[in-house]
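2024-03-11 09:14:02 INFO worker-7 job=invfold-0412 stage=load source=structure_tokens
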């Protein structure tokens, strides 16, 4: 099994990129790859429960649905700790299944041979 990291840096400020990031992540996990979505910069807003509920780009499934599918398929959802804290978000409202991690966790994953794509 390979390893894939999908870094998502945007949310409602660029819902197309946020959505496509999860489409790619779902394709990765469905193909048997160990897959991590790393939410960073404004992407951390997607880690807050309810935030993605109204994001629906034409031609794609709703973002909330894509996120649920990703987690149910065994994908890992990591939220950048400094980015989350900088934006004053509440850890108590974190999406079920998401983990707040530091950059060192992503670097450890990448150092194990993971490829990374960024949206």
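2024-03-11 09:14:09 INFO worker-7 stage=emit residues=119
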């Amino acid at each position: 099994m390979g390893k894939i990291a999908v870094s998502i840096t945007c949310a409602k400020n660029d819902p197309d990129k946020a959505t496509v990031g999860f489409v790619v992540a779902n394709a990765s996990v469905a193909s048997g790859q160990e897959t991590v979505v790393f939410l960073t910069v404004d992407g951390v807003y997607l880690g807050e429960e309810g935030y993605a509920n109204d994001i629906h780009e034409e031609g794609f499934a709703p973002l909330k649905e894509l996120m649920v599918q990703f987690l149910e398929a065994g994908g890992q959802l990591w939220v950048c700790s400094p980015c989350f804290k900088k934006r004053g978000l509440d850890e108590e409202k974190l999406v079920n299944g998401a983990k707040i991690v530091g950059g060192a966790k992503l670097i450890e994953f990448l150092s194990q041979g993971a490829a990374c794509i960024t949206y």
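2024-03-11 09:14:09 INFO worker-7 stage=report msg="Residues 104 and 119 are 20 Å apart (CA to CA)."
2024-03-11 09:14:10 INFO worker-7 job finished
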